[in-house]
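Running this now, will post back.
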Amino acid sequence: MKGSRHSYTLALPCRSLHPHVRLFPLYTLLCMIILCGFVQARLRQEEEVVRVDADLVLLNATVTDRDGKYVHKIPRADFKVFEDGREQAINVFSVEETPFAAAILLDTSGSMEGRLSLGRAAAIRFLDGLRADDVAAVYHFDTEVEQLQDYSPGRDLPPMAFGLRTKGYTVLNDAIIRAARDLSARSKS
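Update: finished.
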């Protein structure tokens, strides 16, 4: 009700009443005035609502050099973002190193025979590259999926990973689903 005004008139013929009874209409009038003030203030608050449509797309990027080492503190001028071949404007740019959780899936199926040690070496290298606040879980899969280590800041491959042998067929999709479910179920702390 923008711009509407309300006025109230109250006629109170109460000269012949008891003094306390004469004050009752005055109290009522005072309460009505206060109530009207609250209603008008509330209407003004509702009118002053500001709605803003903003599109902000967060783009996380990890930058490594040719040797696979992380590159830190890259200036904004060194970044360009393209969508469908067109360069997009970067309105906000910040560099943050946030901890993350990763799941290592070690393939121990029959197809990895003769290459399992390469898989273990890659897992070890990945764990060595984690930062202090990062956590990782380790799974292995062949015909079944098994978690060898829960999410932890440990940087060593669990000892049982070294005793694994290749066998069976590959259930990679099952391993991905299991790791994703475990990751989504873990607490953020």
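Residues 111 and 171 are 11 Å apart (CA to CA). More later if anyone needs it.
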